[in-house]
Amino acid sequence: MPLSPSSKVSVRSGLALALVLSLGACATSQDPATRTNGVNDPYETQNRQVHAFNKGLDTNLVRPVSQAYGVVPVELRDRVNDFSKNLSMPGVAVNSLLQGDLRGTGLATVRFVMNTTIGLGGFFDPASELRIPDHDTDFGETLNVWGAGEGAYVELPVFGPSTQRDTAGLIVDIFTNPLRYSGAVESNPAVRPTATTASVLNDREKFSDTIDGVLYESADSYARSRSIYLQNRRFELGTESPQEIDPFAPDPYEDPYAE
Question: 215, 219, 201, 81: which is closest to 161 by C-alpha?
Answer without folding.
Answer: 215
